[in-house]
Design a protein that fits this description.
single chain; alpha+beta; 3 helices; 9 strands; elongated
Length: 173
Amino acid sequence: MYDGSADDRPQRKWRESWQVRRAVPQWSIEQDEELLTALREAIAACQDVPPDFIEAAQSAFAWHNIDYELARLTFDSSQYADSARAEKASIRALTFKSAHLTIELEILDSSLVGQLIPAHDQPVEIQTTAGATTCATIDEYGCFEITPVPQDQFRLYCRTADGSEVITGWITL
């Protein structure tokens, strides 16, 4: 405890703290200019990103079609292909299920053939990643055919008889 005697402890502490403060490098205008130059370069680098790349990134995180019911893939025949076969099977079968609809799809060489269960008369829409959209009519049994087979990734969209909107995930051939 300090009793007010003539020792120099308070002055020594002040001198030590002043020396520590003097040892800290001071910020200079040159450093400000370096920082501003680095910031300008970073902003310019961000502007060099191609606009279609930015759009693709934003759409990947956008929550599109929030009200659509996703039909999940429950069967894909390509996962069960016999590895001993020398040639690829000519038909690929896929089954998608949601709470309101089952979509069975067969991918042939020249067309897609499918069936909606339960059957209804609303058209099926084929949407590609390239933005193309095609509609296929449904017969009384819920069957449809899409010709030609889309070359890009695609998904199927349908509106059920009760008004539910169902969409599949992206299908890659």
